[in-house]
Inverse folding.
């Protein structure tokens, strides 16, 4: 795109083309977060209303209250931006942006379709898990800088919760990585192409259970009910965002909905084939195998709709859980993590390892299986490979 | 302004950010603000790693150092402080001591950096180097197979194919021992003291 734009710019100003191209990418990604939050907040109201036998918003913007979030946004912008007297001003102001940046950075490495990704990283899974864990930093800063005991309690709970839940979350994420033999999300998504039986969630019984553990831990790590102890409104007023109002408050929520979408996207790619649907539609239409750029584009567009649909389903599932289950106590949260999630995740990891060792292809035979593994190792110089390596490599074939 | 070298631009940007926030750590007197600046400085350093194509090291930096500072901040500083908004006052002696230690390290690093001839431009002009950015070699090395040795031409340097499996295992077991020890120390000694720990949260 930068090369294309350069044609229209006078000499010495061609660097603007790169700036414009970078801006377009950033704005596209930010819109995923912002417009996503706009829709999800509306959806949350509707879902919660229906679950509680209400109608939800019905007036603003037509029959279904489509524009309710926009009206809320306008209200929030016009609200006064308050700050407590005793607060640490700089940290108080900067905290929402820290949360938002951490949530947004995860999208840089999240692919939306085959090769439609901000930056294709070799270690994309690791990067996203590392960056999403930083969102809690904004929450802690907010809780500390507010100079309010409710906020501080909320922040401490959030810290304890997120630090604990990163352990089982990391273990669950490792299982699909182990099966795929790659941390590259584009590769992992492509390896599940075809029918839905190729999805890793149906790879073996261990991955099936791993997915549920992952989803529980992801819900906890993005601070959603039943794990929303940081903002428990029945005991802590509003937890870490007690002292926030107006736009700063809404930025926290944009970050929360952004993270929800990101962990759902990670789940969709790791366990549900990402942009590869339940039926190989793009293969039937000949879009995936074609060489024509427009056909490839169309295939990717279909894949993106597929992927976003899966993400929205994941977020809706979180809402369903939120309005169904009551909030846990802090000791129950810790018990869930340390006594249940972590041992189950560890056992599933071991089980998936053993399964992959003995039945490497899964129950259903796949042709592209193991193509990205360390096969190149044998091709390079077989006589130099020590004894244990061929065993590893041949098992992966 | 023919063509901006974006690599240099972002290198300078991240470098300045890292140095600026590091200065912020030194000059600030509020501990939590210091930790905040430290996190930003370490984050900018991970940006430098990403710029150099070391994605794995960059993500590692984010997870271990930035995330680690976070835990340090919470459990080390905020839970041990007596009042809100702790600030530290530095005496003149500490300034002098700090200046001597920091200054000598800076002098060593600076002389090392300037002793390299022509380190800004590669000999024979700048050319684009294609590198394979992957952490596979690292992982295989830790598992006991030095993949990089396969391309070693010198037969005398082919020794050491065993990789780092033994040190890796020793470190893992060591960490496990530390974790079990920490859990043992933190465990409530009496049943009566049990409520006190959870009350805090």
């Amino acid at each position: 795109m930068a090369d294309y734009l350069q044609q229209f710019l006078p000499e010495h100003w061609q660097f603007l083309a790169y700036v414009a191209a970078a801006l377009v990418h950033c704005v596209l990604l930010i819109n995923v977060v912002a417009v996503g939050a706009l829709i999800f907040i509306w959806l949350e109201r509707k879902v919660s209303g229906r679950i509680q036998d209400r109608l939800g918003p019905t007036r603003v913007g037509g029959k279904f209250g489509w524009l309710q979030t926009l009206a809320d946004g306008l209200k929030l912008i016009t609200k006064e931006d308050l700050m407590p007297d005793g607060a640490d001003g700089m940290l108080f102001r900067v905290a929402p942006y820290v949360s938002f940046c951490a949530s947004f950075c995860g999208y840089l490495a999240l692919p939306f379709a085959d090769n439609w990704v901000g930056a294709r990283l070799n270690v994309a899974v690791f990067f996203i898990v590392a960056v999403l864990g930083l969102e809690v930093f904004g929450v802690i800063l907010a809780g500390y800088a507010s100079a309010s005991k409710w906020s501080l309690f909320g922040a401490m709970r959030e810290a304890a919760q997120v630090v604990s839940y990163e352990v089982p979350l990391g273990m669950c994420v490792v299982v699909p990585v182990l099966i795929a033999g790659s941390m590259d999300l584009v590769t992992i998504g492509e390896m599940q192409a075809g029918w839905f039986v190729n999805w890793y969630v149906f790879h073996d019984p261990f991955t099936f259970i791993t997915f549920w553990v992952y989803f529980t831990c992801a819900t906890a790590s993005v601070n959603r009910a039943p794990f929303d102890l940081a903002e428990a409104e029945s005991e802590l007023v509003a937890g870490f965002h007690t002292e926030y109002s107006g736009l700063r408050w809404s930025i926290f929520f944009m970050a929360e909905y952004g993270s929800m979408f990101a962990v759902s996207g990670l789940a969709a790619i790791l366990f549900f084939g990402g942009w590869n649907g339940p039926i190989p539609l793009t293969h039937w239409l000949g879009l995936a195998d074609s060489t024509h750029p427009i056909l490839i584009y169309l295939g990717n567009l279909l894949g993106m709709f597929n992927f976003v649909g899966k993400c929205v389903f994941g977020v809706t599932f979180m809402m369903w859980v939120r309005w169904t289950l009551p909030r846990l106590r802090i000791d129950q949260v810790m018990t869930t993590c340390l006594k249940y999630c972590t041992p189950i995740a560890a056992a599933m990891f071991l089980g998936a390892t053993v399964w992959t060792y003995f039945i490497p292809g899964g129950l259903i035979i796949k042709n592209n299986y193991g193509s990205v593994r360390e096969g190149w190792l044998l091709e390079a110089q077989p006589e130099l490979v020590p004894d244990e390596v061929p065993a590893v490599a041949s098992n992966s074939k | 302004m023919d063509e901006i070298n974006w690599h240099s631009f972002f290198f300078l940007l991240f470098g300045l950010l890292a140095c600026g926030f590091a200065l912020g750590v030194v000059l600030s007197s509020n501990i939590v603000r210091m930790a905040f600046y430290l996190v930003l400085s370490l984050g900018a350093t991970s940006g430098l790693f990403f710029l150099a194509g070391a994605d794995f090291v960059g993500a590692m930096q984010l997870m271990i150092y930035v995330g680690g500072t976070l835990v340090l901040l919470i459990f080390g500083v905020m839970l041990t402080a007596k009042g809100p908004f702790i600030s530290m006052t530095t005496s003149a002696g500490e300034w002098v001591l700090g200046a001597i230690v920091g200054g000598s390290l800076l002098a060593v690093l600076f002389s090392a950096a300037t002793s390299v001839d022509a380190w800004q431009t590669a000999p024979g002009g700048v050319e684009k180097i294609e590198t394979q950015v992957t952490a596979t070699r690292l992982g295989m090395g830790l598992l006991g197979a030095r993949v990089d040795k396969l391309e070693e031409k010198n037969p005398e340097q082919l020794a050491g194919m065993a990789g780092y499996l033994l040190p890796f295992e020793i470190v893992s077991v060591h960490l496990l021992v530390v974790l079990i020890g920490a859990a043992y120390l933190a465990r409530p000694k009496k049943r009566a003291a049990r409520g006190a720990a959870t009350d805090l949260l």
About this structure: Chain B is about 65% helix and 0% strand. The CA atoms of residues 149 and 185 of chain B lie 44 Å apart.
